[in-house]
C-alpha cells in the first residue's frame, strides 16, 4: 500500500475541480513503456524533485539496488506537467509536508488524491498568484491535514511558514 501525491504546473491544470480530475486521469495514464525520466517535465517540477530526493530518494534511479530501498524512498513518476509520487504510509505525513512546502517554493500546485472526496476541490491546491506561495488558507489546511502530528509540531510549522513568507529567519528549535 502506498500514499500518493501529485505536484503540478498550475499554468497547465484546469481550475475547476471536476475538470481537474479528468485532467489528472489523463496525466497519470502511463504508457506501457513508461520511463521514470525527470527531464520530461517542467523546470519547476525538476527543481522541486531535486529538493525532494534529498529527503526521500528516488527508488527508480538506475542502479538502485532494490534490496537497499527502505521506507524513506519515493516512487516518482513524471509527466509533461506533473510529478506523481508514492510513499510508504509510515513516512506519508512528513512527505506530504515536504511535498507542499517545496511546491510552494517553486510556485507549483499539489493534489492529494487519497483525501479527495470528489465533491469539492479541497484536495487540489493551487499556489497564490502574486507570490508563488500557497495562500494562507491553503497553508493552514496543509498544516491541519498532517495526520497524527502533535500540536506543537503543527504550531512550529505554521509559525515557520508565516515567518518565511515575511522573509524572517527561523529563531526557534
Quick recap:
This protein is of the alpha+beta class.
Characterization of this structure:
With 173 residues, this protein is an alpha+beta fold. It has one domain (3-131). It is 36% helix and 12% strand. The protein has helices spanning 17-27, 43-55, 92-105, 136-144, 151-165; strands spanning 3-8, 75-78, 82-87, 109-111, 124-125. Strands 2-3-1-4-5 form a 5-stranded antiparallel sheet, with helices on both faces. Helix 2 (43-55) runs antiparallel to helix 3 and helix 4 (136-144) runs antiparallel to helix 5. The longest helix has 15 residues, at 151-165.
Features:
173 residues, alpha+beta, 5-stranded antiparallel β-sheet, 5 strands, globular
Question: Helices and strands in order, then pairings?
Answer:
Elements: E1 3-8, H1 17-27, H2 43-55, E2 75-78, E3 82-87, H3 92-105, E4 109-111, E5 124-125, H4 136-144, H5 151-165
Antiparallel strand pairs: 1-3, 1-4, 2-3, 4-5
Helix pairs in contact: 2-3, 4-5
> Would you identify the regions where 5 or more consecutive residues have pLDDT less than 50?
144-155, 168-173
Order of strands in the sheet with most strands = 2-3-1-4-5
Domain count: 1
Major beta-sheet overview: 5 strands, antiparallel
The number of helical runs is: 5
Rg calc: 16 Å
First-residue to last-residue Cα separation? 34 Å
What's the mean pLDDT score?
Answer: 81
> What is the string of SSEs from the N terminus onward?
EHHEEHEEHH
Total strands: 5
Shape: globular
Broad structural category: alpha+beta
In terms of DSSP E residues, the strand content is 5-15%
Helix content: 25-40%
Amino acid at each position: 500500500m502506498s500514499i500518493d501525491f501529485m505536484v503540478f504546473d498550475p499554468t497547465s491544470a484546469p481550475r475547476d475541480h471536476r475538470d481537474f480530475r479528468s485532467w489528472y486521469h489523463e496525466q497519470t495514464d502511463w504508457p506501457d513503456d513508461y520511463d521514470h525520466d525527470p527531464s520530461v517535465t517542467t523546470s519547476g517540477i525538476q527543481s522541486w524533485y531535486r529538493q525532494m530526493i534529498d529527503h526521500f530518494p528516488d527508488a527508480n534511479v538506475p542502479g538502485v539496488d532494490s534490496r537497499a530501498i527502505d521506507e524513506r524512498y519515493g516512487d516518482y513518476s513524471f509527466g509533461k506537467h506533473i510529478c506523481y509520487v508514492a510513499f510508504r504510509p509510515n513516512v506519508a505525513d512528513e512527505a506530504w509536508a515536504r511535498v507542499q512546502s517545496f511546491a510552494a517554493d517553486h510556485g507549483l500546485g499539489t493534489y492529494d488524491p487519497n483525501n479527495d472526496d470528489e465533491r469539492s476541490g479541497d484536495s487540489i491546491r493551487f499556489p497564490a498568484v502574486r507570490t508563488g506561495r500557497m495562500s494562507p488558507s491553503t497553508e493552514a489546511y496543509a498544516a491541519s491535514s498532517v495526520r497524527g502530528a502533535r500540536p506543537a509540531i503543527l504550531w512550529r510549522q505554521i509559525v515557520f511558514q508565516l515567518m518565511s513568507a515575511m522573509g524572517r529567519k527561523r529563531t526557534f528549535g
